[in-house]
Amino acid sequence: MSPNTVAAYMYDVGLLMNFIGDNYENIGLKEITNEVIREFISEIDNMDLGVYTQARIISGIKSFFGFLILEKIVIIDPTELIESPKLGRKLPDILTINEIEQVIMSVDLSDNEGERNRAILETLYSCGLRVSELINLQISNLHFNEGIILVTGKGNKQRLVPIGAQAKRNILIYLEHDRPKHKIERKDNDILFLNRRGNKLTRQMIFYIVKTHVQKAGIRKNISPHSFRHSYATHLVQNGADLRVIQELLGHASINTTEIYTHLDREDLRRVIMEFHPRNR
Question: Residue 118: is it exposed, middle or buried by C-beta count within 10 angstroms (0-12/13-18/19+)?
Fold first, then answer.
């Protein structure tokens, strides 16, 4: 482990040992019970520590007792039934509309996979797809006359998603010019996006494509394929789309999952405060 990790683990165990020393007499590692651990957790909760710090301390203590069990220093793990605090979901970085445009325009169409990569980026943003949905997208499920595609999501649940004119155009260019150049494996004959060997793309390849073109666009954010999905939903919310509609488009089983996409960026919040707060008028 790194020195910082070692120091953090030692700090966590030190907190526990100091707590035991202050509250119990003549107690060794074998005598530490679940009740003692629960009292310790109550103590650190009263220390006004952040939820992530508390979770890290509890994780460190659980790891410590896991080590003691492996080394046969103790027989019973008093932390076995202890749960870490529930942590809120961190929102990934999103791209602005201009940044989306910069990433897509960074694709060099003269490259061997240029037309494919631009079609991939357009489709990610136009339809808000998960990576697994993108790599499994089938040509037979492209219903361009109706302006929709059939997507197979989690649990093999299917949904219809509208596709924008630009994404449709780039997919058609890819299908006409680039895809026919490859000898396609029979099992992947209906898969839309393929690698140079005629096989279905991997998740890792989609991550690589996104990272490459974000860097080419000069954008210094931690962007992944999911960031395109998050940007898609965020831009819909900011332009007034109904949350239930977005839930359907994203294929979320629960509206609670969709609600994480209702955040507004800081500029929107600043604008609202400047416009409506009475002290700013």
Answer: buried
